[in-house]
Amino acid sequence: MQCPNKSENSETIWFGPKDLNPISRGRTIYVTKNSHRFQVFGNFSVGEYKLRITDINISDIGLYKCTISVKKRTYQYEFDIKLQKPPTGLIIENIDKDSILNALEGNDLILECSVISGCPKESLVWVHEGIKLLESTSGIARYTISPSKLDHLSQYTCEAISPALTITLSKTVTIKVHYAPDLYIQYENYTQEEEERVLTCHADGVPQTYLFYEWEHKSDHGNHIRFLTGSEDGVLHLPTINIKEMRYQDNGYYKCIVTNGIADTTGNVNKSVEIPLNVKGKLLSSPVFVADNNKEIFGEYQKSVFMHVNVYSNPKYTIFDIVDHNGHYVSSGKHIKVIEGYTSTTDLFYGNIIQLKGYKLTVNIEKLTDEYLQDYTFRVKNEFGNSQHSITVRLASTPDIPLNVTATHINNGVQVEWVRNFNGGNEQFFFIEYCDGIDWKSVQSFNSTTNDIISWTIPNLQSNIIYMFRMFSRNRIGESNRTEEIAVRIGSESNILFYSVMVGSATVTFILMMTVGAFIFRRLRLRRAKKNTSAQQDLSQTERSEERPYGPYDEINDDEIIENAVYNPDQETDRDSEYEQPVNLSTIKSESESSISSSKKESSEEDIDENHTFAEDVCLNSYEDLTEEREPYSPYTTFIH
């Protein structure tokens, strides 16, 4: 111990703990039982007096003072000697018997170390891979980390640093990070000749207890194809297909789904990985023009028209050309552009329609004229084979009339159903027209179904009114013909039944009356004929036949039936000069019936109102009763209730 101040004219006095008497004055040491362990030394000539204690023991622990007078002022300094005590009981919180601390990936983890302090006060330090992370003198050291899978089994050490220690005091903890598994699939591409095809899903996570779900087979565009069951340790054997040419359907992406109960950093418990599997074979590798390619393209005159074809080729085709019907090559020029690009195509894999990566070949005819209305053949070839597809370019037209139109009363509305017809080469839209006896109204059907049979409901119609319905189709070129009109009466079920019974009863009564009248008329004519015969015995049988226009079984002449066939203006249909329109079965039937039926007068749509009693049909039926000859009746509009 050394007093800070020095004085050549004054001696330094040292006092020990618990002693009132000084230990020394200047160079003089006062004799005590411990004086042999004290020593005063220094450069006395300049007033330097240091105190040394040797073989220190516990009785020497305490407060020491030195006093010195400098220029008649006295200075005193104190020195506290304490007994060194090494720190003990260093521990790391929350570790198990193997010094392992469990953690979850992405969750904060606190490393806490504490010690029973010694003398002097020690320092606690956290060290990782030789780098000091944190130092604390409070007896507790806390350090926070956010572990990742890279920190799994990493070690952190807590050290106590003290001069009282002769051996380092420290402990090390191993961080066991629990994390969702990393996955990869071990596989190789196959040919369709190979029988054994295996995919192995490897998982690497903590804990190493895994649950493997079903594998999923998907197309290149992510369309689901099928689920496959693998083994409990992640091995999948692809099912064997006896028809080798069908094994190309094993192509696509295979997805392995695994969990070990630990969520990843995004919160997902199930982890997945997928790989593309390529099964090579002649059928798959030859170019294939897919089924959704058109065989006909319709264009408008003097307007641009595009021919598109989709082809699947693995590997990609090396040769591609187009020829017209004369065998001349078609290439990009002033009015034609040939374009190659990528697209997606469709195919049937294990009963599911899926999308495949393919190529799109396009020919753009900028102005459609007669010279371009012909057949074109697209040809592609790769190292495995070749394929071709033909397209015919035709001139577009107005759409054809909708087919098989029906109208059914539903609640307070009418459901109209029809079958779509040829669209003329352009997108067509369907319109329903209906009339309440005064005005015609038009409604567009927005049904987006791709089925041929379409239906649309007209709601909120008035009760006890007969509505007329008809349809037509429209595209960008024009409209089709209107369909025949259909009458529907809107009313309650009881009203409909009553109406039907009344109409039916009136019709039957009228037919009976006409039949009886005809029978009486015939009897009168026979009697009159007998009287004429008795009055004119000299007339020959030929002369009598000439005077009588009809025989007893020939009241109506066949020639008159043919000449007086009913004409229905609605049966006329405009025909496109370019294309044959679809056959209207109802029109054919009406024309056929008209050729062998008869009526007493011609009628038109204006002659028939909603109260028309169809006298023509009644007369024809009466004729059947009288002559026992069956003649088909004229077509007429049927009421639907």
Automatic annotation (TrEMBL):
TM region(s), chain numbering: 496-521
One GO cellular component term noted in the UniProt record for this chain: plasma membrane
Main location: membrane
Annotated segments matching region Disordered: 532-641
Boundaries of every Ig-like domain copy: 1-76, 87-174, 181-274
Compartments (UniProt record): Membrane
Coiled-coil spans in chain: none
UniProt topology in membrane: Single-pass type I membrane protein
Keyword annotations of the record: Disulfide bond, Glycoprotein, Immunoglobulin domain, Membrane, Transmembrane, Transmembrane helix
Example of a GO MF term: cell adhesion molecule binding
SUPFAM superfamilies: Fibronectin type III, Immunoglobulin
Domain Fibronectin type-III: 399-493
GO biological process: cell-cell adhesion
The protein's name in its UniProt record: NCAM
Organism of this sequence: Mytilus galloprovincialis (Mediterranean mussel)
The organism's taxonomic lineage, starting at the top: Eukaryota, Metazoa, Spiralia, Lophotrochozoa, Mollusca
